[in-house]
Amino acid sequence: MIDTPREAIVYRRLEAADALIYRQLRLDALRLSPSSFGGLFEEEQAKDVSEFVDAIGRNAIFGAWNGTGDLVGTVGLFARAGVKLLHKGVLFGLFVAPDWRTKGIGRALVQHVIREARPSMEALQLAVATPSTSAVRLYRECGFREYGLERRALKIGGEYVDEYLMELTFDDC
Length: 173
Known about the structure:
Blueprint: E1 10-13, H1 19-32, H2 41-45, H3 49-58, E2 60-65, E3 71-79, E4 88-96, H4 105-117, E5 123-129, H5 133-141, E6 145-156, E7 159-169
């Protein structure tokens, strides 16, 4: 386990130049935690780096960088499409590399998304796999509340994964 002070972590929004390292961390996330994400490792691995550049351009994706310049965590925010849905955003893809967990990085990344969304949105929504108890706890501690359960949200091989649907409304804060 790596014992690094929190102040050694730098948080910033990803840029197009970060696409290759973002791709690698995303693949690590899908390989290590397949039931936590809707993406499939093999499909994402087949994508060209230009698709990750596009994703960075379309969404607000934040990264956590350690003192040696490695990307150790990411989270994203996208705004819903359509005039009637613009008041809501979606937090997606939270992942912290295993050696960097329990250091407050996930919480800090979620807070970056909340700060980004608050000025222009009324609510943030997310879906989280029910077995991901540490992620569910983190989201609850950040103010998200469950508003639904999607049974069989993901199918991995012959196994199903349920997801909690959670929301943080800014008028509640």
